[in-house]
Amino acid sequence: MEKAMHGAHGISYEVYSMNHDARMEVERKREKDYIKSQRMVADLDRKVHS
Predict the structure, then answer these.
(1) Dist. CA 32–CA 44, nearest whole Å
(2) 4, 7, 11, 43: which could form a disulfide with 15 (CB 3.0–4.6 Å)?
(3) pLDDT of 3
(4) Domain of 21, in residue numbers
(5) How many beta carbons lie within 10 A of that of residue 16, not counting itself?
């Protein structure tokens, strides 16, 4: 998990778990990525069904 956290977000899990601001930044990025992926899926779905 440590390598995945650092690779995906640029911080260690230790920093993530101990630093509230760092954790909130990671969670904001995750939310943004999730919304972006949902839009991509919706766009693809529209193209497939049109």
Answers:
(1) 18
(2) 11
(3) 76
(4) 1-49
(5) 19
Place of tokens 């904001």: 28
* Pair of tokens at residue 23: 């954790």
Per-residue pLDDT of the chain in tens (50 residues, 90 and over written 9):
667 877 888 889 899 999 999 999 999 999 999 999 999 999 999 999 98
Look up residue 40 and give its DSSP letter: H
Query: Model-level pTM?
Result: 0.74
- DSSP letter for 49, please: T
The dihedral formed by the CA atoms of 15, 1, 5 and 34, expressed in degrees to the nearest 10: -130
The structural domain count of the chain equals 1
Helix (H, G, I), strand (E, B) or coil at 17: helix
